[in-house]
Write a structure and sequence with these properties.
This protein is α/β, with parallel strands linked by helices. It contains nine helices and ten strands. α6 packs antiparallel against α8.
Length: about 300
């Protein structure tokens, strides 16, 4: 029986809702989500296999101005994800005017000769829905999009139109690119570390999260004294300053305990068993400019 694959890169400025969209489409949490810019740091694949077609979504870091070597890798991952796709899903916040980021993206589409579907996200936030018509007109003056779909990734508005729009870009193949029973190819340890970082993003002040990373030191499946399954996880949280370490830990460890509990509960839902998690906080000054350390964390563009 003939099968087909289609690769779709999700691109856009930071905080446009790319990861929220991919999680919704895939029906599983494969990328962490927060309102803070640059939440996604690497290229992540979300996978849907429906009958004879496999849709592979490439969630890319948001386009922004690079400030350090980590930012360089993030932008490289975003560009390479777009260049390797069959079609691009440009996700834009319809509550905001067209910015230099969108203009730069559109210029890159012209250079690539890419087919692009424009997704105008966050329509649920528009008080006057007629305003989107003017925005669509502004975008059409800049680029000949294959299709324009106003959506709300948060509330699943019009998102059912995306897969049919992608079908025309599918190519025939003997086998699916990925196994048909997975929703992401992201390594489990990387995903678990990202869950911890997400809880930090959701809890900490603006100046701290960009300089924070998390890394799984050990992951072991054991059993409790009563013989029930138990997951033992040791996680290191890396920050850039001693003052940040103190703020992450909090008074008498209150912040770390709160974030750890939130991460542990999500992991228990994932593993369907009890999780015992140990969290450590270490200072690694200027780590976002250290190539070797970025690679160790799996955050380099070629990871």
């Amino acid at each position: 029986m003939n099968k087909s694959n289609v690769f779709a890169a999700i691109v856009g400025r930071t905080n446009a809702g790319k990861s929220t969209l991919m999680n919704l489409l895939v029906g599983d949490k494969v990328a962490i989500v927060s309102e803070k810019p640059q939440t996604t740091r690497t290229r992540i694949h979300g996978i849907i296999t429906q009958e004879n077609t496999q849709y592979v979504f490439i969630d890319t870091p948001g386009f922004h101005r690079a400030k350090n070597k980590l930012s360089d890798h993030m932008l490289k991952a975003a560009r390479s994800g777009a260049a390797g796709a069959d079609v691009i899903l440009m996700t834009a916040d319809c509550t905001k005017k067209i910015s230099g980021v969108e203009l730069s993206l559109i210029e890159s589409f012209k250079e690539l000769g890419a087919d692009v579907i424009l997704l105008l996200n966050k329509v649920d936030l528009l008080k006057d829905k007629t305003g989107i018509l003017a925005l669509i007109d502004d975008y059409l003056k800049l680029f000949e999009f294959a299709e324009i779909i106003p959506i709300s990734a948060k509330n699943a508005v019009n998102t059912e139109k995306i897969l049919p729009a992608l079908q025309k870009y599918a190519s025939r193949t003997d086998e699916f690119y990925f196994p048909g029973d997975i929703t992401t190819d992201q390594a489990e340890k990387i995903w678990l570390a990202e869950i911890v970082r997400e809880k930090i993003l959701l809890s900490m002040f603006e100046e701290i999260p960009h300089g924070v990373a998390a890394q799984i030191e050990s992951l072991e499946e054991t059993k409790t004294n009563s013989g029930k399954p138990l997951i033992e996880i040791s996680v290191v949280i890396i920050c850039e300053k001693s003052s940040h370490k103190g703020m992450i830990i909090g008074k008498q460890g209150a912040n770390l305990k709160k974030m750890g509990m939130a991460a542990r509960l999500e992991m228990e839902d994932y593993f369907k068993s009890k999780v015992n998690m140990k969290l450590w906080v270490k200072v690694k000054e200027n780590w976002r400019n250290k190539e070797g350390f970025i690679a160790d964390l799996g955050l380099d563009a070629d990871a």
